[in-house]
């Protein structure tokens, strides 16, 4: 039997130099945790690892589980080769294709076009779209594909209406939902959430079209609701 030594780096004399390039991703993840000891350092370690080689690059993307992105992130203001202007959708498409281990995603000021890429992240359990003013029912339709979601924040998504809540009602694992200041939703849309058996928290502050009577129907015996206080 031939044994192939897992060495991709050699010394000047041609002898093999052991490296970590072939370690399994779970081992690399354990090393990262041991080196960091805190979440705040994770991103810098992953970024450094991605510069080493392709194997580490794959680990850097597959190991990342929490991402926060926004149009204000200057690191993403570079356009792909040949593009005439920076594209937010290009960045989201790259995330959907490469960051397959992401479980929690925060997107600030995303568009409906960007939501088409977010809908491909089927492993997501937490999605925060707070202050994504341009998201409409068409964008929220893609959220309805994320069957593992337990936490969803749609606060200040001004384009969301009762029709869009119909897509949210498909998320049968949902436990926590924020709809604060979604000005176009009414009792009719909120009642569509009645079949979400795991829902335990609902925030509708600033939603003038949602009445206390509707919340009483929805929350009876199971949901903690934050009503409109206006």
From TrEMBL:
One of its GO terms (cellular component) is axoneme. The keyword Magnesium does not apply. Keywords: Ubl conjugation pathway. This is F-box/LRR-repeat protein 15-like leucin rich repeat domain-containing protein. InterPro entries: F-box_LRR-repeat, FBXL15_LRR, Leu-rich_rpt_Cys-con_subtyp, LRR_dom_sf. Signal peptide: none annotated. It is found in: Cytoplasm, Cytoskeleton, Cilium axoneme. It comes from Ostreobium quekettii. Its main location: cytoplasm. Residues 84-191 form the F-box/LRR-repeat protein 15-like leucin rich repeat domain.
């Amino acid at each position: 039997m031939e044994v192939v030594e897992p060495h991709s780096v050699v010394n000047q004399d041609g002898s093999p130099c052991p490296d970590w390039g072939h370690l399994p991703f779970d081992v690399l993840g354990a090393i990262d945790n041991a080196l960091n000891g805190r979440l705040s350092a994770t991103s810098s370690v992953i970024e450094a690892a991605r510069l080493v080689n392709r194997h580490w690059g794959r680990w850097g993307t597959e190991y990342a589980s929490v991402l926060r992105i926004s149009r204000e992130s200057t690191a993403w203001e570079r356009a792909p080769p040949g593009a005439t202007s920076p594209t937010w959708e290009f960045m989201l498409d790259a995330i959907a294709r490469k960051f397959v281990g992401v479980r929690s995603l925060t997107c600030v000021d995303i568009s409906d076009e960007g939501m088409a890429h977010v809908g491909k992240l089927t492993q997501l359990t937490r999605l925060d779209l707070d202050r994504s003013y341009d998201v409409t029912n068409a964008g929220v339709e893609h959220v309805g594909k994320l069957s593992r979601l337990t936490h969803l924040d749609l606060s200040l998504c001004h384009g969301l209406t009762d029709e869009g809540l119909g897509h949210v009602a498909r998320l049968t694992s949902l436990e926590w939902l924020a709809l604060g200041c979604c000005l176009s939703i009414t009792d009719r849309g909120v009642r569509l959430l009645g079949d979400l058996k795991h829902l335990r928290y609902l925030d509708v502050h600033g939603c003038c079209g949602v009445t206390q009577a509707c919340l009483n129907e929805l929350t009876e015996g199971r949901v903690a609701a934050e009503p409109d206080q206006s």
